[in-house]
């Protein structure tokens, strides 16, 4: 009797486990091999053109992917425009006047639709574009599992509550990432996305004028283009090589030249100091671990099967 009960419990646990992982199991690198065989080439060509026109696009698309996945999963909800009857995520506090890349997505989607009508989701296109941007700036490639579908809904409230702020403490960052299933080590490697791109003055003003764990010369340099008042939209590079995907971000943190307070928190006498120092000395390790963490992020709660839809226009539901 006890043996039968034990078998039943094990079978139940297995069934629950399979159900929980079924969404991820339906993602496959070959999902469009027959229905849209040129997809990867189309996305890569469009991203190459976009990055050549503006190097910052690589960072823009990477951030757009992160802001999508961290709010109810990688479902392209962040791309939906507000309407008179629909409130999306674009005007949430972390995104408003900050998130970009929507026109790039429109351009890629138009080319994909011309080749494979109503076949490829915006969520999958965004996942590929983020990967290609990293590779085009010198990062390591990774295989992108495909088969996500697009959400018919969005949540401005979730975007306001689930994305970390640029002034977050290490404890807050660890908690936010833990809520998404990431370890503290994965938080540290994914933060390395800030090795490319720029930030607005409004997001680092408090750090360069008030923090003490900052190199004096660095603070002085950044204040030149970020006054104590005004100039909120003025930009500064997130690390010393903002157009190259490398481990300079970590070297800058060790030198107390992190632009955002949330970045410097990773190297401030806390639990992630050793990991930051290790990545600052080992570029290959960072690039490898970042690629692996990006695959994991791309698996956050995807819509698959008959859930959601394949949008024809990424800005609105069908």
The helix tally amounts to: 14
Structural class: mainly alpha
Give me the Rg, rounded: 21 Å
Order of helices and strands: HHHHHHHHEHHEHHHH
Low-confidence parts: 1-24
Number of strands: 2
Strand order of the largest sheet: 1-2
Strand content: under 5%
The gross shape turns out to be: globular
Instruction: Report the biggest beta sheet as strand number plus sense, adding barrel if it closes.
Output: 2 strands, antiparallel
Helical residues, percent: 40-55%
Mean pLDDT: 93
* N-C termini distance: 54 Å
Q: Can you describe this structure?
A:
- GO terms for molecular function: heme binding; lactoperoxidase activity; metal ion binding.
- One of its GO terms (biological process) is response to oxidative stress.
- It is found in: Secreted.
- Belongs to the peroxidase family. Classical plant (class III) peroxidase subfamily. Belongs to the peroxidase family. Ascorbate peroxidase subfamily.
- It catalyses: 2 a phenolic donor + H2O2 = 2 a phenolic radical donor + 2 H2O.
- The protein has helices at 2-25, 39-53, 57-69, 102-115, 122-136, 156-162, 170-178, 184-190, 201-210, 216-223, 248-254, 261-264, 273-281, 283-298; strands spanning 198-200, 235-237.
- It contains 14 helices and two strands.
- 50% of the residues lie in helices and 2% in strands.
- The chain is mainly α and 318 residues long.
- Helix 2 crosses helix 5, helix 3 crosses helix 5 (122-136) and helix 11 (248-254) crosses helix 13 (273-281).
- Strands 1-2 form a two-stranded antiparallel ribbon.
């Amino acid at each position: 009797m006890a043996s039968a009960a034990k078998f039943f419990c094990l079978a139940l646990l297995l069934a629950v486990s399979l159900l929980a992982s079924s969404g991820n199991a339906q993602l496959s690198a070959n999902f469009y091999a027959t229905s849209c065989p040129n997809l990867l080439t189309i996305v890569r060509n469009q991203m190459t053109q976009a990055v050549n026109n503006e190097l910052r696009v690589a960072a823009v698309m990477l951030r757009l992917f992160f802001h999508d996945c961290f709010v109810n999963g990688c479902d392209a909800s962040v791309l939906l425009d507000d309407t008179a009857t629909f409130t999306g995520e674009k005007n949430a506090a972390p995104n408003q006047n900050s998130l970009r890349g929507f026109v790039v997505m429109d351009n890629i989607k138009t080319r994909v639709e011309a080749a494979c009508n109503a076949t490829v989701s915006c969520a999958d296109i965004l996942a590929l574009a983020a990967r290609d941007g990293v590779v085009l700036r010198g990062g390591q490639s990774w295989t992108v599992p495909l088969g996500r579908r697009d959400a018919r809904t969005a949540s401005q409230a979730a975007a306001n509550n689930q994305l970390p702020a640029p002034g977050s403490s290490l404890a807050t960052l660890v908690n936010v990432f833990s809520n998404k299933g990431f370890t503290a080590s994965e938080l540290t490697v994914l933060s390395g996305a800030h090795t490319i791109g720029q930030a607005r003055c409004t997001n680092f003003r408090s750090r360069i004028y008030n923090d003490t764990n900052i190199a004096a010369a660095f603070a002085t340099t950044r204040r030149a283009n970020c006054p104590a008042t005004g100039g909120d939209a003025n930009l500064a590079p997130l690390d010393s090589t903002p157009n190259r995907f490398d481990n300079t971000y970590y070297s800058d943190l060790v030198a107390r030249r992190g632009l955002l307070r949330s970045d410097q928190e990773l190297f401030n006498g806390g639990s992630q100091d050793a990991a930051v120092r290790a990545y600052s000395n080992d570029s290959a390790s960072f690039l490898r671990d970042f690629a692996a963490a990006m695959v994991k992020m791309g698996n956050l709660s995807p819509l698959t099967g008959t859930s959601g839809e394949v949008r024809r226009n990424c800005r609105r539901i069908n």
